[in-house]
Write a structure and sequence with these properties.
alpha/beta, 19 strands, FAD/NAD(P)-binding domain, six-stranded mixed β-sheet, 40% helix, globular, 449 residues
Length: 449
């Protein structure tokens, strides 16, 4: 245990969780955030995709004793509800064949607020808001901050953790020393962006759509999704190309927006009372993957969360992965407490392959959600997977391995899951559910492990 000071840059869920855990270990922690305190300031609309909290994130919250409190503020989602182009009745595709396995819709600001309230309980953890980090001295673990009044503060620490998101200033300071660190950096943007919209609660404060489902309107080249909120509303997100037709760059006025939603997503449009205002007011976000290496410099500075590995949101694992980063780091601190260079080297060597894996899986899942969830062979595959999970305790689909097997590394989940998918999709060609022989499938899957 050390009483030396640690600086954490970025008070999102990952940074705040990390700061709490380090404070629990007895470290003196200073947590800096460029935005105002969301406990007292309203979060701007349209700037955060709703989060899907699953077992990896819950395990991380359990580590600091906050899991039960957070679980009281979520809505379980047991299935995807698919609204296809035919306009027929929507149908459910369950996430798991086991009733105790489900994902949870949670508000990002709500979760972050709970973490900040927890952080306030620790006298050895200080939080500073509206402090914009402008640079980091990687050799001396020194951060430079400027506040809203233009006052500059230089903070020296034993080590610095960069949890300041996809636009990380800490990472940029490492990039600026690329020649010294041999720092590799890659960003890969989708040609799609996103815009957050709303389905409000009904007149009695209830949900207009099925509450316990993640709703998807797949349309091959784009899609709409909706996640339930505690107040009866749904956070709706449109994923659409920028330059295609239709695309964000063509939807420039309310008439075009209304016509697009009326003809393309009629079962959502009828509930979107504030569509015109939301579409014209809320920003259009970009979607991309960021990979970099190394994650640490001089045993003094370490990147975690989106600062190290931003991913697209289509596996619902971005926040879960970032929280899991803290769990992995915490286990390594147990082994080498006080030897930060050893901790950082071991963490990087342990974790990088798994964050690369979930980044690739998240892109794969975008095309699955957009193009395949209403495909007959995909639907049959999911039915088989549900039956296997019901009848064979040892079986887990790729999605199950990622979302509900928190002790299986992402890289292993990807390896096993892709092999299973390849076999099952081939097996399902031209078949009906009545023709499926589960014993044969299990035997073949064992051979394909």
């Amino acid at each position: 245990m050390s009483t030396h000071q640690i600086t954490v840059v970025g008070a999102g869920p990952c940074g705040t969780l990390l700061a709490i855990r380090l404070a629990q270990r007895g470290y003196e922690v200073r947590l800096y955030e460029k935005l105002p305190d969301m406990r007292t300031t309203e979060v701007p609309a349209g700037r955060s995709i709703n989060l899907a909290l699953s077992d990896r994130g819950i395990k991380a919250l359990k580590m600091i004793g906050l899991d039960k409190a957070v679980e009281r503020e979520v809505i379980p989602m047991y299935s995807r509800m698919i609204h296809d182009e035919s306009g027929g009745e929507p149908y459910l595709l369950r996430y798991s064949g086991r009733p105790h396995e489900f994902i949870n819709s949670v508000s990002r600001p709500g979760l972050n607020t709970q973490l900040l309230h927890e952080a306030a309980r620790y006298p050895n953890l200080s939080v500073y808001f509206e402090q914009n980090c402008t640079s980091v001295d990687l050799r001396h673990a020194t951060c430079r901050f400027i506040d809203t009044k233009g006052i500059t503060t230089v903070v020296a620490s034993e080590v610095v953790f960069g949890t300041d998101g996809a636009g990380s200033v800490v990472r940029r300071s490492m990039f600026d020393q690329s020649a010294v660190l041999r720092f590799d950096y890659a960003q890969d943007f989708l040609d799609h962006g996103y815009k957050e919209l709303t389905i409000p609660a009904n007149e009695i404060g209830g949900w207009r759509l099925e509450k316990h489902a993640l709703h998807i309107w797949p349309r091959q080249k784009f899609m709409l999704i909706a996640l339930p909120n505690l107040d009866g509303s749904f956070t709706v997100t449109l994923f659409l190309p920028f330059d295609a037709h239709p695309g964000f760059n063509q939807l420039k006025d309310t008439d075009r927006v209304s016509e697009f939603f009326r003809t393309t997503f009629p079962s959502a449009f009828e509930h979107m009372d504030t569509l015109d205002h939301d579409f014209m007011t809320n920003p259009t976000g970009i979607l991309g993957t960021i990979k970099c290496y190394p994650w640490h410099a001089n045993g003094k500075v370490l990147l975690l969360g989106d600062a190290a590995h931003a991913i697209v949101p289509f596996y619902g694992q971005g926040m879960n992965c970032a929280l899991e980063d803290v769990v992995v780091l915490d286990d390594i601190i147990d082994q080498y407490d006080g030897n930060w260079e050893k901790i950082f080297n071991t963490y990087q060597a342990t974790r990088k392959k798994d964050t690369d894996a979930i980044a690739d899986l998240a892109v794969d899942n975008y095309y699955e959600m957009r193009d395949h969830v209403d495909n007959p062979e995909f639907i049959l595959k999911r039915k088989i997977e549900m039956l296997l999970e019901e009848k064979y305790p040892s079986y887990s689909s790729k999605y199950n391995l990622v979302a509900f097997n928190e002790d299986v590394p992402y890289s292993e989940a990807m390896r096993r899951g892709r092999a299973q998918d390849e076999f099952l999709l081939e097996y399902c060609k031209g078949k009906m559910i009545e023709e499926v022989d589960l014993e044969e499938v299990v035997g073949r899957l064992k051979m394909n492990k």
